[in-house]
Each structure stands twice: as C-alpha cells, then as structure tokens.
Amino acid sequence: MLNVVAPFLISIFYINILFGQFYSVDVNVDDRLLRSDEKHEIINLKNDVKNFFINTVWDDNYTDLDINLYVQIIFEGVTEKGNESIYNCQALFSNGSDLRYFDKSVQFFYNSGSSLYYDPVLFEPITGFLAYYAHLILAGEIDTYEFNGGNNSLELARDIALRGSSSDYKKGWGSRITLVDNLNRNMGLRKARLAWYLSLDLFKDGNMDEVIQELNIMLDGLEESFQNVGRDSHTQYFLKINSEKIANVLVKLGQVNLLKDMKSLDPDRMDFYQDSIESISE
Q1: How far apart are CA 105 and CA 264, in angstroms?
Q2: Is 97 helix (H, G, I), strand (E, B) or coil?
Q3: What is the CA radius of gyration of the chain?
Q4: Beta strand ranges found along the chain (DSSP E)
Q5: Which tens digit of pLDDT belongs to each residue from 116-144?
Q6: CATH numbers and ranges of domains, the chain
Q7: Nearest-angstrom CA–CA distance, 258 and 214
Q8: For residue 160, what pLDDT is reported?
Q9: pLDDT < 50 stretches in the chain
Q10: Residues 152, 188 contacting (CB under 8 angstroms)
Q11: Are 99 and 140 contacting, i.e. CB atoms less than 8 angstroms apart?
C-alpha cells in the first residue's frame, strides 16, 4: 500500500508546484513581543505559511505567473479565548513591486501540529486571512495581463471577507471588505497598470508607436483614478515604485508632453519629472 501511496503524494506535490501561482514565498515573523512558550507554539508557522501559498492552486486559468511573495507577520500578543490561544498581529503582503497590503488587525488561532489547508467552504481565521491576501495579490498580477482580469480573484477575496465578518473572529474583516471594494472600483489604476506593463513588453520588442499608445492609456487611467477616488494610496504607491522607470522610458522616446502630464499627475515627484524634461532639451 505504501508503495502506491508514496508516488501518488509525490505526483500531487509536483502538480501543485507546476500549476501553483506563487514561485517563491519569503516569510518573516517578528515574535519579540511573545513569551518564550508562545514563541515555541509558532515555531513551524513560517514553513506552514510558505507551503500554504506554494502548494495551493489558486487559479485554474493562470498557472504560470511565478509570483514572488513577501510576507511579514508581526505578533503583538496572545488572548485566551476558551481553550484557544488567539494571536493578535499586524501583517504585510507584497509582490516586491507595486502591490503592497498592510493589515493592522489580524487575529487567528494556530495549531503547529497540523498543516494549513484552505477550505473554500469552511472558514478558519488563519487560512481565510492568508487566502484573502493571496487572492488580492493574484488579482493585481492578473490585471497586468488583461483588463479586469483579476475580477474573479477580487470576488473570491470579498467572499472570504464576508464569511470572516460573520464568523466568531470578526476583527479586521469589515476593513478587508472595504479594501476589496476600493480596489475593485479604482478602475483608473487598473487600466493604468495594465497599460504600463504592456508598454514595457512592447518597449522590449521595439514597437515604439504602440508603446506611446499604451503610455497615453496609462496617463488616462491615472487621471481617471484621481478624478474618481482622489489621491488613493494604492495609486500613489504605483507611482512611487514605477515613476523612475516611467520617466526613463519617456526620456528615451523624447516625450516631453507626456512627461509634463506625469509632472501634473504625480506632484510628489514634480522636480524629478522636470529634470527629465530638461535632460531632453539639453
């Protein structure tokens, strides 16, 4: 029997590696505020979280995303609830680029003796919390391949948040519902991100006319974002991470007018865009 089971389990493992969406997961745990016995209880958490993301197939259609995920969990303390130890934390999730989500109100229980497994029907605080952010990162990544491509992932994240808000572990889930809704309605940013990443691919292929078309679409998306949702933090972070690359591409293309548009749309880096404009004029 063991001779049959072992190859089966190995094949399942490699199928998940091949068709999972997360290529690498870097987990950092800050447990300085925990007592020594509490630290011992979460000794396996880093590996469990890493395996949870890598070994889960999150989307059947996008199987080659190869996302690099960075997770930081900062423990603030433990609350006893009946026979359970409830961990209170803050957490940060990022793809190492322009997707970053910081959560100040995380609450879950954790059993180091069992693996983390996501059940889309049965809600559990820790797997629901991790799956929620998995889908947010996936939505942002898929949005760079097709317009509104991340809709399904956003819907799944919202469904998790709704179940969390009606569970016995409600802390933070109301804010997570709001976060999904804000991301979903910021259509300007979603349009801008798709156009920007398409322009990078076109730039590598030497299709400069199409690059300029996509950059114009990106600018339209940024203006739409500002008009509809104001100075949204996610739009601001997109600009912070990508402004230098955007300016460099525009300088190489000699696009003074587009740089002027960026200067007005991204006032936090106004001097930087002005320097880029002057470098073309020299």
Answers
A1: 35
A2: coil
A3: 22
A4: 22-30, 67-81, 84-94, 100-109
A5: 999 988 999 999 999 999 999 999 999 99
A6: 2-185 (no CATH), 188-281 (1.25.40)
A7: 12
A8: 97
A9: 2, 4-18
A10: no
A11: yes
